[in-house]
Inverse folding.
């Protein structure tokens, strides 16, 4: 939310298979997203992509991928096209800390710097890749330090501090539009639940409740909510609940795609 609030409608974003918040923050259609989760033909990819492949090109959501790191290069390619077209639009590429271990990450940073691409790299660092802590996977866990070696300005931020995040994002976006080259933000966050699913997984032993508690207590949604007038907050929450209920009803009432759709919208020859 803090990054997308700094973007314009013509700007585009690329994300990961955990891209639901990104999709909504950039303006993606909630009804279409929920219908996609249900596999319905009214979904944003006609029920064919599912939860991990959300897209809404009209809102600049260029797509998510279930393969770690793949959209980083896609985002740079789009940024290169924008530069060639002399567009004022920019690209924001979102990925996790695990993706920084992929070879495409290093290759893309190098290319982005060489071409001075209008791209903002955003690493959502939740400190774990499935069940393995960052310190056990990376010889130099300081991602910003590694990134600076490629020639990019890089900054680490608290993902729960929304006002600061927005301020820094606005400065980075302004620099991109001015042609100053790519920027990198490492935004610290934390996964509350298990890697896949709604349950807790502290019994597995790779992390404990004490590590999670400070993040839960410092939840960004609660912090922002406390800044609002109670009556205003209650009204917002009512409106949101109604919008969610509407999206769920829309998804449930929508039809599944017909068999004739199976081979439509695929690349051939």
């Amino acid at each position: 939310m803090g990054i997308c609030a700094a973007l314009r409608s013509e700007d585009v974003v690329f994300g990961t298979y955990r891209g639901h918040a990104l999709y909504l923050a950039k303006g993606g259609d909630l009804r279409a997203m929920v219908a996609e989760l249900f596999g319905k033909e009214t979904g944003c990819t006609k029920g064919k992509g599912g939860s991990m492949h959300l897209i809404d090109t009209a809102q600049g959501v260029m797509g998510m991928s279930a393969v770690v790191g793949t959209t980083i290069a896609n985002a740079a390619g789009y940024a290169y096209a924008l530069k060639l077209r002399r567009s004022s639009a920019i690209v924001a590429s979102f990925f996790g800390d695990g993706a920084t271990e992929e070879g495409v990450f290093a290759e893309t940073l190098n290319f982005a710097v060489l071409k001075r691409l209008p791209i903002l790299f955003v690493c959502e660092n939740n400190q774990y890749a499935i069940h393995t802590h960052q310190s056990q996977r990376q010889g130099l866990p300081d991602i910003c330090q590694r990134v600076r070696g490629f020639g990019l300005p890089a900054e680490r931020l608290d993902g729960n501090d929304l006002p600061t995040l927005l301020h820094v994002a606005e400065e980075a976006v302004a620099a991109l539009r001015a042609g100053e080259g790519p920027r990198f933000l490492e935004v610290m966050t934390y996964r509350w639940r298990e890697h896949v699913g709604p349950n807790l997984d502290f019994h597995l032993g790779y992390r404990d409740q004490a590590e999670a508690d400070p993040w839960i207590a410092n939840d960004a949604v609660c912090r922002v909510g406390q800044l609002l007038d109670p009556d205003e907050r209650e009204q917002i929450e009512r409106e949101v609940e109604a919008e969610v209920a509407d999206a769920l009803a829309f998804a449930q009432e929508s039809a599944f795609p017909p068999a004739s759709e199976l081979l439509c919208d695929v690349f051939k020859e």
